[in-house]
Specification:
The radius of gyration is 25 Å and the shape is globular. The strands form four sheets. Strands 1, 2, 3, 4, 5 and 6 form a six-stranded parallel beta sheet that branches. Strands 10-9-14-7-8-11 form a six-stranded antiparallel beta sheet. A five-stranded parallel beta sheet has the order 17-16-15-18-19, sandwiched between helices. 35% of the residues lie in helices and 20% in strands. It is built from 19 helices and 19 strands. By secondary structure, it is of the alpha/beta class.
């Protein structure tokens, strides 16, 4: 059944739409839906740019915007990120569901423009933006300009969207103004010191889970439990060497494009541990083989290939003679990696803790490594300098009302934010309001922070702990099985106003949500349709809060 036990949630409020007739609206309203803050940054810059150009505008977080105003709006600009595989970010879900409300009138007088952010490595690229675009069209709203879909390196496309939307609204030809009149400047990275690193898991060192402590004494970064940090890693040296050897190029050759050596560029500037569709599209312009074109044109095969290959695989499987500058021209800039903060600011303001699993596995007769995890777990010595940027995650913070019960459900390194939550609950002397349901493969080797969690239980910061170690018995058991085992307690906690948190991989999140639907059907007498609608309401009302990847 697991190690210890318990769970809770808030009563759902049905979504109500109150149409604001004859509402006074500015010439332009700007809305954003975001998780990591990039959409907010673009929206705020859009607001600033319109103001500088003498156009009155207002800027709102979608979650704070009164959707009943839409029939009175003139022009609405929307910046929306996609969460995972086509999901809306948490602060945009209520907005979208209200757009679909039975009482929402047609919006024939509304003009809009959408800047969608996404990751082209996912099948449903910019899915959230596409969903909102389709619903606005269904309501007869008119697009000012075509939706712009931005990939991870979004800055150039977003700037062009700001410029094009402005030029179209005020009737200026786009070539008459310079895009760089508007600037999107991300916050600067902060430099700190890696104070401590120790292995948590008892698994092999090469695939270990590590606890890291970063110094926050001088920077005084005011983070909250539930936030994460962004790190730009270096790529594995071994992979860089293999790519250069396969292409038969000179590692010391200086690139025309950036004046750095090929080796330096592949180590620090370009993404090589992951493949994306844009990389393959650009490669096809150099490598015109029919086999590569056939792969690109077969959606299912392309998805499987991208999910199981890196840049080295691409140049081995579909070889092509290239010089160094041609090769790097197909690559994307190296992507940031995001890590949940594993310490509570209320208890440990002078440090920022992380919990990172080393990604390393064998496949296709070669070894694969994760860039971010090997960089922080192996590439940095103790007391080394590390650059990072705080990413606020307000939709995954603890409830403002400290009397609210909380249920933490996760797997693996998904324990990180829960450790931070528990430290803050302990610092505030909040007792018996938290229930942890967490799992991994083996209790003997993978029980992360075991002693600390037991202490949280003993001092009543945790009311219950339930664990699911999937490989410790013949039949695999997962965290969703603990929900079924303790469904009576789950429903009791939910009736008492509990909030559920989910942290870990998307598959786990989907299985937990499916189990919740089954429990609502079996224990509350709901139909499948009613149970799924109930779950959607819980997500819309932030009774279920997710940090899935």
């Amino acid at each position: 059944m697991g190690f210890f036990s318990t769970l809770l949630s808030k009563k759902e409020k049905p979504l109500k739409l109150s149409i604001q007739k004859n509402c006074t609206c500015p010439p332009v309203t700007i809305l954003y839906g975001t998780k990591t803050g990039n959409a907010q940054l673009i929206a705020q810059q859009t607001h600033k740019y319109y103001h500088q150009c003498g156009i009155e505008s207002e800027c709102y977080n979608m979650d704070k915007y009164d959707v009943g105003r839409l029939p009175s709006e003139h022009k609405v600009l929307i910046v929306i990120s996609t969460d995972g595989e086509g999901e809306l970010p948490p602060n945009a879900r209520k907005f979208y569901n209200l757009l679909q409300h039975d009482e929402m009138p047609l919006l024939a007088n509304l003009e809009y423009a959408i800047c969608a952010l996404g990751d082209s490595s996912y099948d449903n690229f910019c899915g959230a933006g596409k969903m909102i675009d389709a619903q606005l069209q269904k309501l007869n709203a008119q697009a000012i300009i075509n939706r712009v879909d931005c990939d991870l390196d979004f800055k150039k496309s977003a700037l062009q969207w700001i410029q094009n939307s402005y030029d179209t609204i005020v009737g200026i030809k786009k070539e008459s103004k310079k895009v760089n009149d508007a600037q999107i400047e991300l916050p600067d990275f902060i430099t700190t010191t890696l104070k401590k690193r120790k292995q948590l898991s008892k698994a092999k060192l090469e695939q270990g889970v590590f606890h890291l402590e970063l110094d926050n004494t001088n920077n005084h970064v005011d983070y909250a439990a539930g936030d994460c940090i962004e790190i730009i890693p270096s790529n594995p040296q071994k992979l860089v060497n293999q790519i250069i050897e396969t292409l038969n190029l000179d590692k010391s050759q200086e690139l025309v494009s950036n004046k750095h050596s090929l080796e330096y560029s592949l180590l620090h500037q370009f993404e090589i541990t992951k493949l994306t569709r844009p990389v393959i599209r650009r490669y096809i312009k150099i490598n015109t083989s029919s086999e590569l074109t056939a792969l690109h044109n077969n959606k299912e095969q392309l998805r499987n290939y991208i999910n199981n290959a890196d840049v080295l695989d691409l140049i081995i499987d579909y070889p092509c003679k290239m010089d160094a500058d041609e090769f790097v021209s197909i690559l994307q800039p190296i992507h940031s990696r995001y890590y949940s903060i594993a310490s509570g600011y209320k208890s440990k303001p002078k440090q920022i803790d992380l919990t990172v699993k080393t990604i390393r596995f064998q496949q296709k007769e070669r070894e694969y490594e994760g860039a971010g995890s090997t960089y922080v777990n192996e590439g940095l010595e103790q007391d080394a300098k590390i650059n990072y940027r705080l990413v606020s995650n307000p939709s995954f913070h603890l409830p403002e009302d400290t009397s609210t019960p909380v249920i933490f459900i996760g797997v693996g390194t998904g324990i990180a934010p829960y450790r931070a939550f528990l430290q803050d609950l302990e610092a505030q002397e909040i007792k018996n309001k938290a229930w942890l349901i967490w799992g991994d493969k083996h209790q003997a080797s993978d029980f992360l922070y075991e002693d600390e969690l037991i202490d949280f239980y003993k001092n009543e910061t945790l009311a219950f702990i339930n664990t699911a170690f999937s490989r410790d018995q013949e039949t695999k058991e997962y965290v969703q099985h603990r929900l079924s085992d303790y469904k009576d307690r789950l429903l009791e906690w939910l009736d008492n106003g509990a909030v559920i948190y989910l942290c870990g991989h998307n598959k786990m999140g989907d299985q937990v949500k499916e189990t919740l639907v089954n429990i609502y059907m079996s224990e509350k007498g709901m139909s499948e349709q009613q149970a799924k609608a109930h779950l959607r309401q819980q997500r819309d009302n932030q009774i279920i809060r997710e940090d899935l990847y």
